[in-house]
Amino acid sequence: MEVAKVENVSRVYKVGEVETYALRDVSLTIQSGEFTALVGPSGSGKTTLLQLFGCLDQPTTGRVFINGQDVSRLNRNQRADLRKGQIGFIFQFFALIPTLTAYENIEMPLLLNGMSARQRHERVMELLKAVDLLDRKDNRPDQMSGGQQQRVAIARALAPNPTLILADEPTANLDTTNGEQVMELMTRLNQETGVTFVFATHDPRVIKYARRVITLRDGSIVENGAGPAR
Amino acid sequence: MWTYLKMAYRNLLRHRRRSALSALALAIALALLVFMAAFFKGEMRSSLEDTLRLSSGHLQVRDVDYDPDKASVAWSYLIDKPFDVAQKIASLPPVRVATPRLFASGIVSVGQDSRGVQIIGIDPASEANAPYRQGLVSGDFLTADDRNGILIGYPLAQSLGLQVGSSLNLLVNTAEGQVDEQPFVVRGIFSTGSSNYDKGIVLLPIAKAQTFSGAGDRASIIFILLHDREQAQAAAAAITGASYKVLTWQEMNELLVLVNDFSNAYITFLNLIILGVTVTVIVNTMLMAVFERTREIGILSALGMKSRQIITLFLSEAALLALGGVVVGLLVGSALSAYFGSVGIYFGDLGVSGMIFGDRIYPYLMLEDVLRLTITAFVITLLACYYPAQIAARMEPVEALRAEK
After folding, report:
1. Please, which residues have CB within 8 angstroms of residue B293's CB and are 6 or more apart in sequence?
2. Which residues of A touch B12 (CB under 8 A)?
3. How many residue pairs bridge chain A and chain B with CB atoms within 8 Å of each other?
4. I want to staple A200 with a disulfide (CB 3.0 to 4.6 A). Which of A46, A90, B46, B289 is the partner?
5. B343 vs A136, A156, B351, B362, B363, CA distance in Å?
């Protein structure tokens, strides 16, 4: 089943009179349950592609589909609705809300989805256990290490049971040990829950976990094949 | 909503000093507005009360040709047999007291010193004289048959160096257009609480004033107090007489009503200026918060928070700031108003002619003013903070996520 698809997508940024192509006529399909790495040097278009899959941005030309729905021309609130139920994000900066505890950060997408208090509590506790942070549930981000924060972010991304999780350089700000722990956690969750992971990286230690690797350069896909983990 | 308030509260605590200063700005402004409202209300209220009890009463019956500015005692301007008229009016149910008064212009002289005064002939027995009787600073009140006694105000006594028992000469413009002069003895010195009023009047028993001025058995007005001043129109309609005119307190104090209306408009304008300046401080705080938290807004948006929800989050912060400021401001403003409302603020003789003001102004806080100001301050703050909240809500998530932490 197709979870995400882009068809002939281009994304052009205009600065003054100068047009820069971040993506150029890209077509790609992501199937359910994939664990896929988008790789390539800085400026190759990895993050832009993730943002289009995540409905954070819209293509200049071409179409984007999420779970079969064309999302290319949805308005801001329709895209927000889609994100809160179907898409989870993990960012390279540990994108937690600094005033909320680990528990509350994970709870936030559930609140936005209108889940009842009892269901929220059960789900958050389940996720805290899954990422092995039960003892840190009342800690705020500044009371946790980078690795712990990223595990909270992973739990938050999983919270509403999305079909797709997008991770933009999830280990870029972590040391080797923490980076590997995060990747192993993502791999385990992918296998246990079947949720689709697409992550952008240029770190070979991260690429080795991917079962599919898509290489981008100058906004175009130059390679699309099986990854080392297959 | 609880989640928004919780997040808003914690966000405000991130910059405690900045949040506290913003709330303080609103608190100071609201305290000032509450106190100002109480001050002006107290001033206008006491001015009206003083005017009614000392000068105009609730109703006055005058001869149709009487002109109060001339204070003439020419017979054609006066009411004949005023005690009979007053007695008839006093029998009407809404009337508490009706008493004749005679006004004449005169000059008090002591040695080489003299002052222009208004001579008021009163019926000493009438309860309408309570402000003078209760305001006696020294000496005794007049009696109806006193033929050379006079009551003078405290500031006049001070300026002329007079005491109880002192003698003075009083010169009067008579009914025939002549001038008469007689010596009097100061029986008592009074203070009504308004130096400006007290320095310009002297009181004589009406019988003596009639004889002295040549008015005969006549009076300038019938001074009437009602049980309820709001019944003035109805009571005026019940008083009949072809040669009289009946004036209500509203008609006699048009200037006061006008000043009251003007001061209300002036205060409203001033309130808006003060609130405008204060709200600018809070809007600035909220704008700083929006720009500092651009990336967080991006994260929340990525999680699926809609524009409306982002606006609610920032308006919750504004509401908490406003609430803190409003509560403190209300307490301080009410405490100041209550304290000065009991001890008063001394201004002395304001030197305003045409209106009676007390030497002390007692702020008077009304619940409706408190509610109006509180709601206005709260609503204006929220309305103004809609602007930064909307900036936050309009941020493109992809741009916001790129922002520096």
Report:
1. B11, B392
2. none
3. 64
4. A46
5. 59, 62, 22, 7, 9
Query: In angstroms, rounded to a whole number, what is the distance separating the alpha carbons of residues A159 and B187?
Result: 93
Condensed to tens digits (0 to 9), the pLDDT of residues A198-212 reads 999 988 888 889 999
Q: Which of residues 305-344 of B touch A (CB under 8 A)?
A: 305-309
> What average pLDDT does the segment B223-247 reach?
89
Cβ contacts (< 8 Å) between B396 and chain A: which residues?
57
Structure tokens at B331: 């307490």
Q: Provide the token pair at A54.
A: 């995540």
The tokens for B4 are 């928004």
Q: Is this complex scored with an ipTM above 0.90? A: no
Ranges of each domain in chain A? 2-95+146-226
Share the mean pLDDT of chain B: 90
Q: Using CB atoms, which residue from A77, A82, A108 is nearest to B303?
A: A108
CB contact under 8 A, B305 and A80: yes
**B399 φ, ψ to 5°?**
-70, -45
Q: Which of B4, B11, B296, B303 is best to mutate for the A interface (most A CBs within 10 A)?
A: B303
The CATH number of A2-95+146-226 is 3.40.50.300
Q: What's at A175, amino acid-wise?
A: D
